[in-house]
Amino acid sequence: MAWYTYIYFIFNFPLSSSYFKPRKWEKKSSIYTYLGVPHFKKLLVLTGWEKITRKENPIKKDSKTLKSLVYYCRSSELGHSVIAAIVLVNTIAVSMSVADAKWLLLTNILLNIYHVMLQRFNRQRYERLRKFLE
User: Fold this and answer.
1) pLDDT score of 126 more than 70
2) Could you give the number of structural domains in the chain?
3) What is the pLDDT of residues 65-97, one digit of tens each?
4) Cα 86 to chain center, whole Å?
5) Local confidence band at 124 (pLDDT 50, 70, 90 cut-offs)
6) Is residue 20 part of a domain?
7) Range of the domain at 94
8) 3-state DSSP of 8-71
9) What are phi and psi of 96, to 5 degrees?
10) Domain contains 97
């Protein structure tokens, strides 16, 4: 993730692609609830990760802060998506069998895929709140 952060700050991507727009099936967030994303979020709070990220990006009830949180979610989602794709390609290329790849796939799901889903889950909530405040 460090190399992504370095590249991100050099190029400062606009992150305005249609990829970041919520899909119809995501809008009610029931798919994320079914997949356990809220439980994953609680796990991050219990491990202290939430405190670390909130120091950098505190949540305030104003439109400007929510807009920056949406942008931060997009950035984090892009980073985890790129890393997940790289890990998946390398897993397929290097592993000799599915048994060899299980731990890499599980780690990729926990460290990247769930983070992507969490960012998409949170971003929708931030957007709704921002629209409500405006």
Assistant:
1) yes
2) 1
3) 888 888 888 888 998 999 999 999 999 888 888
4) 16
5) confident
6) no
7) 34-133
8) HHHHCCCCCCHHHCCCHHHCCCHHHHHCCHHHHHHHHHHHCHHHHHHHHCCCCCCHHHHHHHHH
9) -90, -25
10) yes
**Rounded Cα–Cα distance for residues 41 and 122 (Å):** 10
User: One-letter amino acid identity for 91?
Assistant: T
Q: Are 78 and 13 in contact (CB under 8 A)?
A: yes
Within-domain flag for 11: no
d(CA 82, CA 77): 9
Question: Rounded to the nearest 10 degrees, how much is the dihedral formed by the CA atoms of 41, 71, 4, 117?
Answer: 30
Name the amino acid, one letter, at 113.
Answer: I
**What would the pLDDT profile of 5-21 be if each residue is shown by its tens digit?**
677 777 777 788 888 88
CB 126 within 8 A of CB 66: yes
Give the pLDDT score at 83. Answer: 92
**What is the residue type of 30?**
S
Rounded distance between C-alpha atoms, residue 17 and residue 130, angstroms: 19
C-alpha neighbours within 13 Å on the C-beta side of residue 50: 12
Is 65 within the bounds of a domain?
Answer: yes
